[in-house]
Amino acid sequence: MANGFVTSSPGARHGDTVQAVDQYDEYAQKFVCPGSGSVSISEIGAWVQRNAVETAYLAMCIYTHDAVNDCPEALVTNGASGAKTISSSGLLKISHTFATQPVLTGGNTYWLILKLNNGTPPSFDLFATGGTTAQRASTSPPFGTGDVWHTHTDQTYDMGIYAVYPAAGDISISVSENIVF
Q1: 117 contacts: CB under 8 Å, gap ≥ 6
Q2: I want to staple 15 with a disulfide (CB 3.0 to 4.6 A). Which of 39, 46, 121, 125 is the partner?
Q3: How many CB atoms sit inside 10 A of residue 84's CB?
Q4: pLDDT in tens, 53-96
């Protein structure tokens, strides 16, 4: 059970369902990207609790950190999932594998963001206390950009959101040899 930057896709939820979300609200939680240098992200995901069967759409993305205002700043290149359909109820893992992986800088702070695009809001799996989560009410589907995050509400929820990066030492090498006997 993990959230934030993890080395493998979590097989169990992180947290307890304590917070319902409103249509178009965005929730962002900040984490420090492990390692140093360039770090490729292969997957982004979240655990949600869905009580209704009505279809809804959830999107996830990675933002840079606005250190002056302690909030999300700008979408990382290739760092958005697009709308993921939620059409069943219960505890669900919603994830997205990046075809073109976003590249982060190890040691830097980033924000992982969830947004319900439309439909009946699901409940997110959150701890009642924990990390710093920013909440921003929105009235339109696109993720907020620039200074729109300067107006937000800080929460003490620890969301069930994650981004997968390669573990140290996970290096694939392809070798082709021509052996003559």
Answers
A1: 24, 56, 57, 58, 59, 83, 141
A2: 125
A3: 19
A4: 677 788 899 999 999 988 889 999 999 998 888 888 778 889 99
What 8-state DSSP symbol labels residue 3?
-
In a domain, 69, yes or no: yes
Cβ contact 18:46 at 8 Å? no
Q: Residue 137 is which amino acid?
A: A
- Total number of residues shown for the chain: 181
Q: Which residues constitute the domain of residue 31? A: 16-162
The answer to whether position 97 is within a domain reads: yes
CA–CA distance, 1 with 135 (Å, rounded to integer): 23
Q: Is residue 1 part of a domain?
A: no
* pLDDT, position 126: 60
Domains of the chain: total? 1
CATH number of the structural domain spanning residue 77 = 2.60.120
What are 25's two structure tokens? Answer: 């609200």
